[in-house]
Automatic annotation (TrEMBL):
Name of the encoding gene: SLC12A7
Name assigned to this protein: Solute carrier family 12 member 7
SLC12A transporter C-terminal domain: residues covered: 784-903, 996-1066
Family: Belongs to the SLC12A transporter family. K/Cl co-transporter subfamily.
Organism: Ursus americanus
Classification lineage: Eukaryota, Metazoa, Chordata, Craniata, Vertebrata
Gene Ontology CC annotations of this record: plasma membrane; synapse
Length: 1066
């Protein structure tokens, strides 16, 4: 059979599936052989994996017994899981869709739009608002749905739209956050619609079909209105349970009854038009008794008069007895009864009667609805009427929800939906005019009398009563059927974690748990018991859904994304924007507080999905909007340095990875997160050694590890990983190229190489020092965290303690800003900030403290200020000697025997061109340096005395600065000029270099001062001196930093670039 289709051998069907192959039937016209084969029932595995055509999704995505969005069907029994399937049981992959525009879209939309409001409330709205105002209300609502339908048509024709309707369209157009929020709102709207339809069903039953069926009578309740509400609750709950059981047993029964319910609606509307035509030449005889201009219920009397004349005698009627205390003409009667006459009029005078002119404006009776003897359950006004009426125009999504069952969805959805809206809009608008032309206003405003439309209809009022009863029943069943499936679709998408339990159901895929939740929410609407109170709630959720459909179309159109190519051409972003604005306006017109509550619910869901939801990438428009906005913002950001007030730390975090591509120091990311109060850019960088071709798998794994750690530490930023031939070049590349345009980092954060003294770890400290040089060359600030594994995690909290800042060199204020940012985080919030500044011998310590306090006051930073005096210590010489001996020993151990023999002997030499500077102890270099010293500050640093705005005396040899001198280079030139034999014994005859002695003295002494004041501090921030110009001193530089921070728990070394400034101005 298969060979008859001329198929290639590769796609032949196994024998186990031949029972499903269409026999010797000819190939249908318009269907290619591949599509025809797709309709063949194949066993599991035939079209799975890489060999499955891309147009055919896996069958497990579909519900059993129902077509999936792509038309893929899993018959009952072919479902994997609890239902089970035999290994040879065939799996139906395609079922030809049969429905066209009329059956698949037009009629379902018609059934959902025409409903309970038309039969129960439209005449009342015309009565209380007048024909003109009612026409305006209906026009606004119909315009809103028409604009939404245009936007929906554009989205629905931009590719295949599976079942899921508005939820699918919004989530794939605006992202999972908007999709989830609006999808849940649409779900709640559909659920409350079920409650509204059930309440409408019970109102029709108790008011027009069987009033005697009321369980609670007016005498036992607090009046007739209260008794009605109680009966609605009792009967509504019973009806809800019955309908939920029907839906639970099987949806197929609901679908079979759908055409019956639709027929009831169509027949009812035809009966209305037939009745209107009949009133033109034969108005019905419907007398209405009026007292003044108020209608009277005939339940307590039969004659519409105060007195009855019979046999030449006048006797009071039963009506007289209702308003007077006795049957005598001299009895005391109600004032309103005494002042007004009782008249009888025809309730439906007909089209030709001319009552339309009197019904055009808002009736005076409705303006005075608060007067006595007027039974009004609610005050009526324009905005409230909009909220009550709007649910009658909802239901425009019914066609798009069935897109998987349509023959040509991209043609049927726009055509069927727009035609259904045009038809229903004509019906509503024409009914408003016809009701105003045929029926007296007092009858229109009577909600609790007979069914007005029934009295108008031909041939019998029961056509409308029965038709409206069954149509509301059907609409309620449809709501209880559709809402659980929508919730199940949201749950299965996995964007809202706590809803995932509702994605499960019976073995055949029926959403059991979702149906249970839907019934519970629907019960809350039934307990409200008032149709007029439930309708505005329903309006809010539908209006929000329609608003976001319009927003989705407007965003996609304005972004002009390449993927936006809808087949429906009659759309424009201005129409979508107008529809969105109209929806928003109608929300606040209906009820501003309901609108705020609905927006709050949607906002909470949005933020929840954003915070906890699974990551979904659906190519949505909001991502595209973000890309456009980011591109626009980046182009506007200046490439030059930012203004002082806009400066913030944009941090590049340099992470070290181990052999398994895991982060060595996770606490570095914790520190980064704790600095997030700066609201700056964060780039987390790392370097892998090797070539990209060899290491691309490891690079991806490392990037995943870093991103997962960033998620754990809640670090908001970007990850950038570089594969380089060596770590040194990779770190340099990161410092140079990280960032984009004006959004580049200005600060580098890295960990101190703890094991730099180990013999086999030479490159770690060399890379570190070169990175320091790179940041200086790039004019970027540098933060070095020492003992980084002792830094707190984000979950820890310091109950007290100090953050000590040792401000030795004024570096533009970064040293002040960092503790301020840290204290904004919960970890450091309770810590105090102390600032220590180091004074020299001839500094005015008291004045310096006052100046610094004033400076901090202007910076709006609260901190304690202390001034510490520094002096020279005696034991530095020995420590320096030990350092130099160790350094020299390491060099010797790395040389071969021959190289050691060629090692240059280090000896003292005369002072060259300055012999007169030779001192008594022979250290001419020290004298030379002392005499010629012009201490070279980094171009970006200045003494702290700048703050004090005082003039300093010239530097003296005793005033040791933590900087490096040019003369160091001159001294180094004379060190290694004489060749000689050197060995390990020479190490112990070394004398320390005097320049090193001075630097070591500074480090040792400052370390002692810091320990004396800050040993118990939670964090110590120190100025970091720059590296030496001569690379031969790099190891000594590391030793200086080690000594400077010795004995401290947590240290943050800060090296400013001079471009970051904390300003005192706003």
């Amino acid at each position: 059979n298969v060979q008859a289709f001329s198929m290639p051998p590769a796609t032949s069907v196994p024998l186990s599936a031949r029972a499903c192959v269409p026999g010797h039937r000819p190939l249908p016209s318009g269907i290619g052989p591949f599509l025809w084969l797709a309709r063949v029932c194949l066993p599991l595995g035939t079209y799975r994996g890489p060999h499955r055509p891309p147009s055919l999704p896996p069958c497990h995505l579909a519900w059993p017994g129902a077509c999936s969005p792509w038309g893929v069907c899993c018959p009952r029994g072919a479902w994997g899981g609890a239902a089970g399937r035999g290994p040879q049981e065939p799996l139906c992959l395609f079922q030809s869709p049969r429905m066209g525009t009329f059956i698949g879209v037009y009629l379902p939309c018609l059934q959902n739009i025409l409903g309970v409001i038309l039969f129960l409330r439209l005449t009342w709205i015309v009565g209380v608002a007048g024909v003109l105002e009612s026409f305006l209300i209906v026009s606004m609502c119909c315009t809103c749905t028409m604009l939404t339908a245009i936007s929906m048509s554009a989205i629905a024709t931009n590719g295949v739209v599976p079942a899921g309707g508005s939820y699918y369209m919004i989530s794939r157009s605006l992202g999972p956050e908007f999709g989830g929020a609006v999808g849940l709102c649409f779900y709640l709207g559909t659920t409350f619609a079920g409650a509204m339809y059930i309440l409408g069903t019970i109102e029709i039953f108790l008011t027009y079909i069987s009033p005697s069926a009321a369980i609670i009578q007016a005498e036992t309740a607090e009046g007739e209105a209260a008794a009605m509400l109680h009966n609605m609750r009792v009967y509504g709950t019973c009806t809800l349970v019955l309908m939920a059981m029907v839906v639970f047993v099987g949806v197929k029964y609901v679908n079979k009854l759908a055409l019956v319910f639709l027929a009831c609606v169509v027949l009812s509307i035809l009966a209305i038009y037939a009745g209107v035509v009949k009133t033109a030449f034969d108005p019905p005889d419907i007398p209405v008794c009026l007292l003044g201009n108020r209608t009277l219920s005939r339940r307590g009397f039969d004659i519409c008069a105060k007195f009855h004349t019979a046999n030449n005698s006048t006797t009071p009627t039963a009506l007289w007895g209702l308003f007077c205390n006795s049957s005598m003409p001299s009895a005391t009667c109600d004032e309103y009864f005494a002042q007004n006459n009782v008249t009888e009029i025809q309730g439906i005078p007909g089209v030709a009667s001319g009552v339309l002119l009197g019904e055009l404006p808002v009736p005076e009776e409705s303006r005075a609805s608060g007067l006595p003897y007027v039974l009004t359950d609610i005050m009526t006004y324009f905005t409230m009427l909009v909220g009550i009426y709007f649910p009658s125009v909802t239901g425009i999504m019914a066609g798009s929800n069935r897109s998987g069952d349509l023959r040509d969805a991209q043609k049927s959805i726009p055509t069927g939906t727009i035609l259904a809206i045009v038809t229903t809009s004509f019906i509503y608008l024409s009914c408003i005019v016809l009701f105003g032309a045929c029926i007296e206003g007092v009858i229109l405003r009577d909600k609790y009398g007979k069914l007005v439309i029934g009295m108008l209809a031909w041939p019998s009022p029961w056509v409308i009563v029965i038709g409206s009863f069954f149509s509301t029943c059907g609409a309620g069943l449809q709501s209880l059927t559709g809402a659980p499936r929508l919730l199940q679709a949201i749950a299965r998408d996995g964007i809202i974690p706590f809803l995932q339990v509702f994605g499960h159901g019976k073995a055949n895929g029926e959403p059991t748990w979702a149906l249970l939740l839907t019934a519970l929410i629907c019960e809350t609407g039934i307990l409200i018991a008032s149709l007029d109170s439930v309708a505005p709630i329903l309006s809010m959720f539908f209006l929000m859904c329609y608003m976001f459909v319009n927003l989705a179309c407007a965003v996609q159109t304005l972004l002009r994304t390449p993927n936006w190519r809808p087949r429906f051409r009659y759309y424009h972003w201005a129409l979508s924007f107008l529809g969105m604005s109209l929806c928003l306006a109608l929300m606040f017109i209906c009820s501003w507080y309901y609108a705020l509550v609905a927006m709050l619910i949607a906002g909470c869901i949005y933020k929840y999905i954003e915070y906890r939801g699974a990551e979904k990438e659906w190519g949505d428009g909001i991502r595209g909007l973000s890309l456009n906005a980011a591109r626009y913002a980046l182009l506007r950001v200046e490439h030059g340095p930012p203004h002082t007030k806009n400066w913030r730390p944009q941090v590049l975090v340099m992470l070290n990875l181990d052999e398994e591509q895991r982060v060595k120091h996770p606490r570095l990311l914790s520190l980064t997160t704790q600095l997030k109060a700066g609201k700056g850019l964060t780039i987390v960088g790392a370097v892998l050694e090797g070539t990209y071709l060899d290491k691309h798998v490891e690079a991806q794994r490392a990037e995943e590890n870093i991103r997962s750690l960033m998620g754990v530490e809640k670090t908001k930023g970007f990850c950038q990983l570089v594969v380089s031939s060596n770590l040194r070049d990779g770190m340099s590349h990161l410092i140079q190229s990280a960032g984009l345009g004006g959004m580049k980092h200005n600060t580098v954060l890295m960990a101190w190489p703890e094991s730099w003294k180990q013999e086999d770890n030479t490159f770690s400290w060399k890379n570190f020092v070169e990175t320091v040089r790179d940041t200086t060359a790039a004019q970027q600030a540098l933060l070095v965290a020492k003992n980084v594994d002792l830094f707190p995690q984000n979950q820890e909290r310091f109950g007290d303690g100090d953050i000590d800042v040792w401000w030795v060199v004024h570096d533009g204020g970064l040293l002040m800003l960092l503790p301020f940012l840290l204290r904004q985080h919960k970890v450091w919030r309770k810590c105090r900030m102390r600032i220590f500044t180091v004074a020299q011998v001839d500094d005015n310590s008291i004045q310096m403290k006052k100046d610094l306090q004033v400076f901090l006051y202007h910076l709006r930073i609260s901190a304690e200020v202390e001034v510490v005096e520094n002096d020279i210590s005696a034991f530095t010489y020995e420590k320096t000697l030990m350092m130099e001996q160790r350094s020299q020993m390491l060099k010797q151990m790395q040389l071969s025997k021959t190289e050691r023999e060629r090692e240059v002997r280090v000896r003292e030499r005369p002072c060259g061109p300055h012999p007169h500077l030779k001192s008594q102890n022979g250290s001419c270099c020290h004298a030379l340096l002392s005499h010629q010293a012009q201490l070279i500050h980094d171009r970006n640093t200045a003494s702290h005395s700048v703050v004090a705005t005082r003039t300093q005396a010239p530097s003296t040899p005793d005033k040791v600065q933590m900087t490096w001198t040019k003369e160091k280079l001159i001294a180094e030139k004379y060190k290694n000029k004489e060749p000689g034999v050197s060995g390990f014994k020479d190490l112990f005859s070394l004398k320390p270099n005097q320049s090193n002695v001075r630097r070591m003295h500074t480090a040792v002494k400052l370390n002692g001062v810091v320990l004396s004041r800050s040993r118990g501090a939670q964090l110590v921030l120190l100025n970091m001196p720059g590296p030496p110009r001569n690379r031969q001193g790099d190891e000594n530089y590391m030793e200086f930093l080690e000594v400077l921070t010795e004995g401290l728990n947590r240290v943050l070394l800060v090296r400013g670039s001079g471009r970051e400034v904390v300003t005192i101005y706003s």
